[in-house]
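Self-study notes.
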Amino acid sequence: MWWAGLAIGVSGAALAAALAVPAQADGAAAAGGTDGGGRPGGGTPGWHLTDTGSDARFRGLAAVSRRAAWVAGSGGTVLRTADGGRSWRDVSPAGAGELEFRDIEAFDGRRAVVLAIGEGEASRIYRTEDGGAHWTESFRNTDPRAFYDCVTFFDSRHGLAMSDPVDGKYRILSTGDGGSTWRVLPSDGMPAALPGEAGFAAGGQCLVSSGPQDVWLATGGGATARVLHSTDRGVHWTVTDSTLPGGDPARGVFGLAFRDRRHGLAVGGDYRADQQSPRAAAVSGDGGRSWRQANTPPPAYRSGVAWLPHSRSAALAVGPTGTDLTTDGGRNWRTIDTGSYDTVDCTPDVGCWAAGEQGRVARLEV
């Protein structure tokens, strides 16, 4: 199998080439080798569904390696695998059954931080240092106006979480001790939010970082879909309009991915199944100061996006209607799978995972 012979550090170009095969003639499944349910067919490349034993919707995903990953989702569910998805261990925090986990960040197979979303005290952060055997609640929101959406880390100690606007500005939490304690950052350096603007807790990618200082925040729901950028860990921010659709509470930028501090991808659209998303992706080459609409975007709403490791031009985007591949840095996308996923994440050892509804978690195999 492809995983067995892959050496650490091999370029993701081989993976992208394997995925970029012509679509099947019968149209039953897009190139990528699955039947739309995520089951590899005919030995062709694609997502391989793992048996999680859960029916939770996993919008939170933290890939650690080809063998290790964490997922977090509805019903306060957190699962962890250490054997490439052959088995999953339920490591959900005790008493969290009423919570909606939408983002998880893992530093390795034992240390992770998970975010629950919702109004007021429903927004919480938990952390573990023993693989989920024990969890500590390190933050509980007490402001009924706040609603936390996403969390990101620059390294194993420094991280941020973001809330929808409070008093007209996005609220940012900061930690410097791996998520053990959190403090609200001053809002002086945060631009004003647009009327109706908010973040989307759709796939854990509305707040993303790259390197030791840079972080980006994705927005929607306002007159335009925007991307905010900070170069000092969330103290000061600039804001730029994206090319993705806005002007409706269901439209905006849902997911971001930056492979370095300059090159970024944005995906989104309109999450309603009966609405089209003709401009579902954009690309930036200047750290988010400007965005260019994709020449050939994904055909529908997408909520998650990830660069393939060790590649300067290949990335995956996922959503409820499929997975798309770009091999030219986000300018053109092509559907390679029709299975439903909400989020995607890849690791330096060229391990890619996707997660979504009905307990779906898949590993990419070629």
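Second protein, same conventions, sequence then structure:
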Amino acid sequence: MNASPSHRPHPAEWTETQSLLPSAERDLPAGRHQFHKEQMMARIHEDLRTSSRTSGTSPVAPVKRSNPFLRRTILLPAAAFALAGAVAGGLALTGGGTHGGKTALATGPALTTRIGAADAKGAPQLLERISLAAADTSAPTPRKGQYIYIASKVADSYIKTVGDKSEAVSDELHSRQVWNSLDGRDGWLIEAGETSDKGITLKSDTPFSGAYNALAELPTDPDALLRRIYRASDAVRDPEVPRDQAAFVAIGDLLFESYPPAEVGAALYKAAAKIPGVVSVDDAVDATGRHGVAIARENDGERTEWIFDKKTLRFLGERIVVVKATAGNPLKVGTVTHTSAITERAVVDAAKQVPGQAS
């Protein structure tokens, strides 16, 4: 992790999955900040929140993140990748008040946690159980014209600099709602602090890799699926990012703000079990305080954890935790640089429709 203002997040911190299936730059309404345009091109994964932030007029050094959803955690197409570098290299949101119709998030002390014990031997068995749970076909199958709705709570920790003073802070935990059509050509996002209360459109001429239809086309053989993930990430990842880490992050990206068919979800977990360095964690806490077990992988002193309910093995959320001190990381061991929790995942009949609400 690097707190230098000129640091660019590694491509494996963005969506590796963009190269698995067709993707495209997302055009946003006129007047939106460049940051939002970058997010849309990455299809609204959280991973680019580490782009430069500001408080007043002073730049805030971004904290390099291993993921996100998640993600990012995202590999962008060539045009988007060039733009991502421009954003990470200097464009910044203005802190305080409102900007582009949105309200700046309040900040508090950096999030911290107890670091759960990791067990390399326990990962294959736990992932096999998670895969079996994911293969449950009782969830409704979406129909043409419907949308995937996902509500979550998210927050990040980072270094804030005001004048000559720097401190570790975190965003307030805030809500996020995403709607995506099955083909990925239409959608909507509402996120506190990032959009107005009404949200912003996610229309596109081409689908993105997390769309339901795109996920349904992925191979369900774990070996074939993993080979495809490695191939895609190897073609575009930063050489500094280990290929195993890039593959792990890519799978996590496909699991977060998406609704994979049961057989694809099961295959993704079985594929993850084949990646070297993947461990199980005895206790991890999502953004809403729910305790669970985790599947995780460490890279550069940070551990990316996928959190699951201990009994049902349902996916709860993801977090990234500093587990080792490194020369380039100003955050203390135990700091949670990113946390998320899925609060609802459903199929609805229209964009902006909340589950249980008539269309």
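Instructor comment on the second fold: Confidence is low (pLDDT under 50) at residues 1-19, 21-100.
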